[in-house]
Amino acid sequence: MRRSWLLLVVVAIYLLHNDLWWWDDPRRVFGLPIGLAYHVGYCLVVSAVMAVAVRRAWPLAVGEAGGREREP
Amino acid sequence: MILGIVLAYLALVLVIGAASHRQSRGTGEDFFVASRTIGPFVLLMTLFGTHMTSFALLGASAESYRVGIGVFALMASSSALMVPLVFLFVGTRVWSLGKRHGFLTQVQMLRHRWQSEAVGVLLFIVLVLLLIPYLLIGVMGGGITLAEITSGAVPVWVGGLLISVVVLTYVSFGGMRGTAWVNTFQTALFMVLGAVTAVVIVDRLGGVDRAMTRLAEAAPELLVRGELVRPLQLLSYTLIPLSVGMFPHIFSHWLSARRATAFRASIIGYPLCIVAVWVPSVLLGVFGRLDFPDLAGPAANSVLVKMIAIHAPGVLGGLLAAGVFAAIMSSLDSQSLALGTMFTQDLVRRYWPDLSDQRQVLSGRLFVIVVVGLTFALSLVAQRSIFGLAVWTFTGYAALLPILLAALFWRRSTAVGALSALVVVSGLWLVAFFRGWSQPDFSIGGTGLMPVVAMFAASAVAMVVGSLASTPPPAEVVERFIPRSVR
To answer: A26 and B216: CB-CB below 8 Å?
Structure first.
């Protein structure tokens, strides 16, 4: 369940990296060209997603070295 | 002045390296992976510093000078996504296996996984050969930067020698702990200095808004992707950062973590560090067009150095040189240490299994000294065009990643599969390299699609076909790596 949720988000983020829609757009946001500002924002969003992922979708299983502790 | 700042900085680095030596426990595991005791903050800083080279400061600004803001999307934000994903899914699992089975190198882990001497030997050769140009670029980059910042007053070989001697000293005395501590200091330094340089220079240009407005008139093509970056190029560049999963020097840092949760800070912080380093570099690169509208060829490579020379010479020049040295040395140290580890563990200990811990550490030290010495000697004769090799090194490592993925996640993978993938990658790498190495923007059929895409796909196919065509591996070996019970 938590894994499939993460997978969907990752695929969506991967696709959003290809921002063809700003390709020739000369507008500026916060003083930066929109093609640059978008990717800076993109990095911040990735960081936020990772913050959720390391809590909700830790890849090591219960009982592995580095996995969550076994339930008592 | 400039030289004084650089020397003061190098002295500081040596002091930190010496301090770490006092914590040493004198065992092999301590020298090579700091007894697996590195905490979250040092892990983030040392991983980031190891991954970033002088390219993040000098190369990024030079590329942006030529291609514009698209460089950030190509190289920075693609790493900001792919690198944390590799850390999360591959890094933590590698750490877990290393902790449980006591692995210190990639070769040990994969040889064990498929019970194959041939996989170990071939992997060792490929990993080491791909690393040598990377070391060379570091040593040469340091020499060239120092020569340029001092306008030629310091010859190129002096900078290369300084870097080699300092790295050698703290790596061979401090081992992994010294490297991680020094890297933390160096990473903080080049992040801060990059930002300070950008703030000072942008301020001289009248602020971001004014500089952007001027640039929109002078060179509007730099503020959009337009024709300078192609969509397929953007898509395929996302595979390049996967190389981080196969770098021997990143691998050893993974193993040095105190516990798996120490990775969390790196996974979350990585995209933020990328922004902190790459935004200043890209901005300074495009603004370089305002001061120097027509640098061509190699002259464009030093656009950042030239801008500092006209806007803030003296102190800032010295600090930037220190920052570039920091970025170079934080990679070079980990690479030398990784080579030393591989030599000791994969060759010496394999064939002289009775060697004591002290002897192991000594042989590792000696090998690091030989490698760095040879690299310095090579740097005296190598052509500057060697810098074109950087993207090929990344391409090679990225194309090897399917092998590690199969080892960690695919129970049915076999030694034959791994060997097929290794042979296919080596072959394709040589072909693509001899075809495309003289053209900086080489892509498959001129479409913008990078060679890494074809090589990564071919490597994955070879892994799958080779594995399915051979007998399945014994269940008890697989169980050690991918236990069913915990799924």
So the answer is: yes
Residues B39-73: pLDDT tens digits?
A: 999 999 999 999 988 788 888 888 899 899 999 99
Can you give the length of chain A in residues?
72
- Best to test chain B binding among A16, A19, A20, A46 (most B CBs inside 10 Å): A46
Strand-pairing partners, residue A28, are A33
**Owner of token pair 């993040």:** B56
Residue type (1 letter), B325: F
Listed residue (B279, B284, B278, B280) closest to B311, CA to CA: B284
Residue B290: Cβ within 10 Å count:
16
The stretch B358-386 carries a mean pLDDT of 83
In this structure, what is the dihedral angle of CA atoms B187, B189, B191, B192, given to the nearest 10 degrees? 160
CA distance B38 to B257: 5
pTM: 0.92
Q: What is the mean pLDDT of residues B303-328?
A: 84
SS3 content of chain A, % helix, strand, coil (to 5): 55, 5, 40
This complex has an ipTM of 0.91
Closest Cα to residue B417, out of B468, B459, B463, B460? B463
| A59 contacts in chain B (CB < 8 Å) | 88-89, 92-93
